[in-house]
Design goal:
The structure holds two protein chains of two kinds. Chain A is α+β, with helices and mostly antiparallel strands. Chain A is 30% helix and 34% strand. Chain A has three domains: 3-62, no CATH class; 79-245, Jelly Rolls; 253-332, Phage tail protein beta-alpha-beta fold (3-Layer(bab) Sandwich). In chain A, helix 2 crosses helix 4 (47-62). Chain B has two domains: 1-123, no CATH class; 128-198, Orthogonal Bundle (Arc Repressor Mutant, subunit A), CATH 1.10.10.10. Chain B has helices at 4-12, 25-34, 38-48, 55-70, 78-97, 102-109, 112-116, 121-127, 129-138, 142-152, 158-165, 169-189. Chains A and B meet through helix 2, helix 3, helix 4, helix 5 and strand 15 of A and helix 1, helix 2, helix 4, helix 9 and helix 10 of B.
Chain lengths: 334, 198
């Protein structure tokens, strides 16, 4: 074939289609030595081929950006050691010495509750005198009462991660509603959603006490355990390290979803954002997603729903309505 | 802060460019510097060429000429160079057609304007890559999109995709190739429908 003939065949559409076909073969695991040799020959045939392949391959490589959104989260170095991005506030230090031995006793001891709050979408880290740290998630109220004998905290609402300096003589207790969680050297999370309480163990162990009148025995939780207590029952399951890390994604301002129904994901976003995501019909709500997002990036979430799941997305001033079809969105009203 | 997920995606979405083709400096330069100009280049070609069905051809020809000339020395700055190549190509084509329509000639004379505008292409390309990928994905034909998503996001093999969608593996490959081709047009060409040859 002369170069002129080749040039006639090299109309852009045909060359680009051919380039895409090679790429599709590569992506279809149809790539043995013989194919590779043919491909190399084709590539070497003209610059038109090379240029077309570069173009389609690079566009395809761009879609990897999407796959990153769905890549499983790998637990990295202990998150607590990570420097916080943005306004990292090491907040109020709770007075009164614990663990400093006799010297501490010289201080006048006064029981005093301190209250810590975070707004919707907020996050804050508190460091106690004993070196324990508490990270508050969005929309959370925590009260602390530290005395010479005990360290008591009340999670009135929201979610907090506790990294406790264990001290058997000064038990560290977290009260959530009528339940009590007692530290036995540990890192753990407590989350309250109304009546529902969730305790997750990252390290060590805790003792969980249901209200005395429930007649339930104390439950000892160890690393990886997740306890869910509702008004009716208490259940415990063991999570993998990856799952546990995902649940703690909020400590880095991230939400991780894996095999999560869209409706549940929307509910998670609601905890962090004033703007609501409304899933208009049950069918859309059952769609499964796997992705990670910044807790405040509902716009990206909506785009994923449209681009990846092919759902109808209607953006308003104070809500984003996601539905299977436009008709569902109308039925839903707003 | 707002776009943390995107930032992650930006930094981690490393293209596996040239995995199978021993990409050279020139290839990387081409991808980095020239391809992002495509949307502007297409506008330019659309504007200055009567037969719109030929625009994709012209664009590809511009690429080939740019690539060929850049072998000697990488042009800097890139943008005026690419548009000068485009301009010369249009003039060559007009000469070749022999019958030179008057309005076409005047158009070519006016080409200088578009060449010198400092385009936003590069920054836009870098910052909004994820958005543009999503836009492109949204506009793919549904079957192709399903295959692309299954392959690239769910990481399914061709066989698994075939089983899931109830189609043959050959059809999967066809949808994949079609999807890839359209993605390139949408991603680089920017807004508008994927251009198809008549």
């Amino acid at each position: 074939m002369t170069p002129e003939e080749q040039a006639l065949i090299d109309i852009a559409g045909a060359v680009r289609a051919k380039a895409a076909e090679w790429l599709a073969r590569r992506e279809s695991e149809e790539w043995d030595d013989a194919t590779k040799a043919n491909f190399d020959a084709w590539l070497a045939q003209s610059f038109a081929h090379r240029v077309a392949f570069l173009r389609v391959e690079n566009a395809w490589a761009q879609t990897h950006r999407l796959s990153v959104l769905r890549k499983p989260f790998a637990p990295a170095t202990p998150p607590a050691k990570r420097p916080w991005r943005g306004p990292a506030r090491i907040a109020a230090v709770v007075a009164i010495a614990v663990g400093l031995g006799a010297v501490a006793m010289l201080y006048p001891i006064k029981s005093q509750d301190q209250v810590f709050r975070t707004p919707l979408g907020g996050r804050e880290t508190i460091t106690l005198n004993d070196g324990s740290t508490i990270e508050l998630n969005t929309d959370t109220v925590l009260r602390a009462r530290i005395t010479s004998d005990s360290r008591q905290l009340w999670l009135d609402k929201g979610e907090a991660f506790f990294k406790v300096q264990h001290d058997a003589r000064h038990p560290f207790e977290v009260m959530a509603g009528d339940h009590r969680i007692t530290d036995i050297g540990t890192q753990f999370t407590v989350r309250r959603d109304g009546e529902r309480l969730k305790v997750s163990l990252l390290e060590g162990s805790v003792r969980f006490d249901a209200p005395a009148q429930s007649g339930t025995k104390p439950v000892y939780l160890k690393r990886g355990d997740e306890l869910v207590a509702s008004a009716e029952k208490i259940s415990v399951r063991t999570l993998s390290a990856v799952q546990t890390s995902r649940e703690l994604g909020w400590r880095r301002g991230m939400l991780f979803f894996d095999n999560t129904p869209l409706a549940d994901a929307a509910a998670e976003f609601k905890r962090y954002n004033a703007k609501k995501i409304v899933v208009a019909d049950a069918s859309a709500g059952r769609r499964i997603i796997g992705a990670n997002f910044a807790t405040n990036n509902i716009e990206l979430f909506a785009r994923m729903a449209r681009a990846v799941l092919g759902l109808h997305v209607q953006e308003g001033a104070d809500a984003i309505v996601i539905s299977t079809t436009a008709r569902h969105a109308k039925d839903q009203g707003r | 802060m707002t776009d943390k997920a995107e930032i992650n995606a930006e930094s981690a979405g490393s293209p596996r460019l040239g995995e199978e083709m021993n990409a050279t400096e020139l290839d990387l330069w081409f991808v980095r510097e020239v391809l992002p100009l495509e949307a502007t280049l297409l506008q330019y070609l659309h504007h200055h060429w009567r037969d719109q069905s030929e625009v994709a051809d012209l664009c590809q020809d511009v690429y080939v000429r740019v690539y060929e000339r850049a072998r000697e020395e990488l042009p800097d700055p890139v943008r005026p160079f690419v548009f000068a190549v485009a301009r010369n190509l249009l003039i060559d084509r007009l000469r070749h057609e022999q019958v030179i329509p008057i309005e076409a000639v005047s158009d070519v004379d006016a080409l200088g304007v578009a060449m010198d505008e400092p385009g936003p292409d590069r920054t836009v390309a870098a910052r909004d890559a994820l958005r543009r990928v999503m836009d492109a994905l949204e506009r793919l034909p549904p079957r192709s999109r399903d295959v692309v998503v299954a392959r690239q996001l769910d990481g399914l093999s061709r066989r698994q995709i075939a089983e899931r969608m109830g189609i043959s593996e050959e059809t999967v490959k066809w949808h994949l190739a079609t999807g890839m081709n359209a993605l390139a047009d949408l991603f680089y060409g920017g807004s508008g429908e994927p251009r198809r040859r008549k």
